[in-house]
Structures are given as C-alpha cells and as structure tokens.
Amino acid sequence: MAQPEKTQGQLVRSLGLFSAFILTVSSVIGSGVYKKVAPMSSELLSADLVLVCWVLAGLITLCGALSNAEVAGLLADSGGEYVYFRKIYNKFFAFLFGWSAFAVIRSAAAASIAYVFAHSFNALVALPELPESWASISVMGVFTPFDNFGVKSLTVLLIVVLSYNNYIGLKFGEGLSKGVTIIVVCSIFLIIVLGLTLGGGSWANFTTPATGFVQRSWTDSAFIQSIFAAMLAAFWGYEGWTATGYIGGEIKNPNRNLPLALVFGVSFVMLVYISINFTYLFVLPIDEIVAVHKSQNTIAAVVVIKHFLGETGALFIALLILLTTFGCTNTTLLGPPRLYYAMAKEGMFFKAAAYIHPKYNTPSKAIWIQAVWSSLLVFSGSFDQLTDMLVFAAFIFYGATTLGVFVLRFKMPDVPRPYKAWGYPVVPAIFILFCIALITITLVSKPREALIGLALMASGLPFYFYWNRGEKQAR
Length: 475
Description:
Elements: H1 17-28, H2 32-35, H3 37-44, H4 47-75, H5 81-88, H6 91-124, H7 132-135, H8 149-167, H9 170-198, H10 221-238, H11 254-283, H12 286-295, H13 300-334, H14 336-345, H15 364-378, H16 383-411, H17 426-445, H18 447-458, H19 461-467, H20 469-474
Helix pairs in contact: 1-9, 1-11, 1-13, 3-10, 3-12, 4-10, 4-11, 4-16, 4-17, 5-6, 5-16, 6-8, 6-13, 6-14, 6-15, 6-16, 6-18, 8-13, 8-15, 9-11, 9-13, 10-16, 10-17, 14-15, 16-17, 16-18, 17-18
C-alpha cells in the first residue's frame, strides 16, 4: 500500500553548543568591524574616545547577553523573543516585537549587511549605474530608490541566493556560516598581528586628537550626544547577538546550550572588535580615518591595510569583507523565518509562513516572505540610515527582554533556571537604564531614523487587529 505524501515537515534539533556559538559569532561579525570606526572617528575626533566607545558598547552588549541568557535558557524555543514576550507580557507585545523584527530589525539588518557586500564588490568590479535623471528621483524627499542602482541590484541578488541556500536546509546554511566564520576570524587576527608588527603605527595616535577636536567635560550635553552617536555606530557592529534565540527549537539541549552560546559568543566578538579597532587606530592617525568617512566611497579597513601592505593588502581585505558580509548575511537571513513561523502558527502572521517544507524541514515560505521585504528595504535607503533605524528599534525590545528577567523572577520564582543572570539585579538594571537613555537620545539626535523606525513598527497594528478578530468574536 502506498504511503500518503508527506505535506508538512517539522523542525529538527540538530545543532550543538559549538554550532550555536558559531552562529552567534557569525550573526554579529559583519560590516561594522570594517566600516564603523570611520563615522565614530568623525563624530569624536579622538582615537582614545573611539576605543572607549567600542569598549563601552561591548560591555553594555555583554550586560544584555548576560541578562537575556537567563530568559533564553528558561523559555528556549523557536521564535526567540516572540516566545519570551508571550509568557513575560502578553500576546500584543509579542506581536509588536515580531512585526518589528520583520518590518525593521532583522530584515533591515540583512539588507544593510548585503548592501556592504555589494558596495565592496563594486570597489573591485564597477557595477552599472542608471543615468542621473533616474538616480536623482526622490520619494517623499527621503528615499532615492534608483541611486546606486547597480549596488542595490547585486544586494538583492545576494539576498535571493542566500535565502535559497537557507531554504534547502538548516544544516547546509549552518555549515556555510561555520566555515566562513572560522576563515574570517582567523583572517582578522592575522590583520591584527601584521598591523601591530608591520604597520608602522604609533602610540602617539592615541594622544593626538584630530583637527578641530575640542576638549569637553563628560557632563557636557553636546559631548554626551556625540558619545551616544558614536556608540550607536558601534552597536551596529554588535547587532545580531540575539538571533540565535530564533532557532532555539533546533538546538540540542537548548536550555543549557543557548545561554552559553549567547554569553561566550558576545564575549568573543567583543575581544575581536576591540583588538581590530585598536589596530586601525594604532596604524593610522585619526585625521586620516576621518578623511575616509568624508570620502564616503572608501572603507576604513581597506585604507589601513593598504597603508602597510599596499595594493595586495587592499585586495586581501576587500575579499575578506566580501567573505565576511556574505557569511553574516547568510546567518542574518537564517534565523528570523523561525520567528515568523512561530507567529503564523498562532494566526498572528501571514498564514503561508506556518508552512514547513516536507523535504528540507525549513520554514520555506517564511524565508521567501523575508527575502521579498528585505529586498524592498534595500531600495528604500542608505546603509547608515538603515543601521541607525534598526538599532533604535532593536534596543526597545532588548530592554524589554531584560526587564523580563525581573518579571519572570516574580511570576515563576520556583521554576529551575539552567542559567541565572550574572550580577542580578545590578547588571540587568544597568542595561535597562542604558536602553532607555539610547532610545531617548536617538529620538533627539536622529529623529528621522527614529520616526521611520517607529512608523514601520506601528504599521503592524492593522494586521494585528485583523488577525486577532476571530479571538475577539469568540469572546
């Protein structure tokens, strides 16, 4: 007798601790490690302050990871924060997070990282452009969809190719991310060693500020805004550390392995970032790094490596940036469809997203929904506009997850916790206060990016009331 055709697959727990650690690292190390030192230098005009901001951003991110790991270990499942918020707060707040991840946070992250891949490729092989009459077309005076059209087209192609890669199986996508991440991390440490030994750098670069630098008190409001603006750039470098939570349903022993992967992953990335940015600032005077930011068409890491390894070094770092952003885009696209799948199963997202491919056991339709929206975001704005917008939105929910540590200690005091937040209650409280400060200062200093982010978050409200209508009628 013939067996009935299998029409729906299921998620499989196939990833161990090392794989979860690698996915955490690969979802974070992307474009920021190469690009963000330049806008931070332009903002602060001081090498030692730039390094301080990388350290502060790393410590704040680590506080978030140390806190959020308790929630992840307690409530581990596919869907990440969506699952957490359902149990910590309510269905509406969980939906608001899930929609924000789709509309702003994760889709914009994928678009931004893929954009840097295409931008770096364009530096090696010039991509075709549209005539100026097309490139200058503006939508509402904010968006220029046809500007840099060749780069944006390649960005979309990368998103489509890597979405297909994740469509055909988690293990294949995870294996690709693992291989790329190991090569990238080894290459970055090689750059650090060569830069510190052959780069011809000087400690004087940390004591000589850039032209135009004005010494200000740490309590000066303008100085505080500059510090937060620089840290906003650094936080883009650290962005993505929660993405491993989306695949909690596919990690072996997730209550133990998921929090360990988060804490060890963020700690390792922090070590990498501080080391490589110290090398950049040691090799080149900050005035030269500020000039990189003003030129807009160059990448700081390329200029630094070219300084002491010539054209061969510039080619090497350009290829490394391609490899890094390729791997990070893949990982960034891999996790979020599991979130949309979890929402769709509860009737709180597009129904098709609840489908699991019978052969590949992946949320295949959710993967393509994400690919389409990420591609549209590529044509909506610039790299820096996208990253500032998504970091602002992300920290709203980072703070909410950390607040959940306190809520769950009150709601579920007797439930065993595989991992308890280190430094509780001080460390979680520090992270929450910082989230509030960053959100407030971003609203003041970058209102356009913040308001666009909030508008995209709010765009999900009509969908919520539509998808929730059946539950209301049943009451």
